[in-house]
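Deliverable D4.2, example record:
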Amino acid sequence: MTDFPPDPVIVAGLRSGDEEVFALLLDEWSRGMLRLARSYVSTAASAEEVVQDTWLAVIRAVGTFEGRSSLRTWVYRILVNTARRRGERESRTIPVSSVGGERPDGVPPGEGGPEGAALAGEVRELIDKAVGTLPSRQRAVITLRDMEGYGADEVCEILSISPANQRVLLHRARSAVRDHLAAYYDGKGGP
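Output generated by the structure prediction step:
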């Protein structure tokens, strides 16, 4: 992301319908958006729909972007609101796609590779499972900070929380994930 254009250039491109600017944003931000959306909804497919709905909302509303925050923060706020609404709807129903045994990362069960990749996959799955058990606000904070590399200030702005609240949520989330991993490996005898 070294030569990423500044927000005014991106916003102007989006407003004018520049497909290259939009493709650049998709390439740079969609993976992180998908990961954050996944912390609010029950399946990978649902998270993909949240990201698609977010991009549609961004395209529709880019004309109203005032620049009071960074474009990325604005987009992520739209994503969080979209994902929350979807997650709330899903909590009232059981999606058919969740019955098929899909792993948290969306990969069908049983896919593997060499032993090292299998171990890394096991650890990743354990972390995903541990993160999945967290309350939604802790899930969102740990996803943005530790998985996507956002700074504390930007996380506060995206999630509309205070710096102190962000620190507490992150601490609790990290502690819970560590405890989950420790319990797993203590019961198994190590990795």
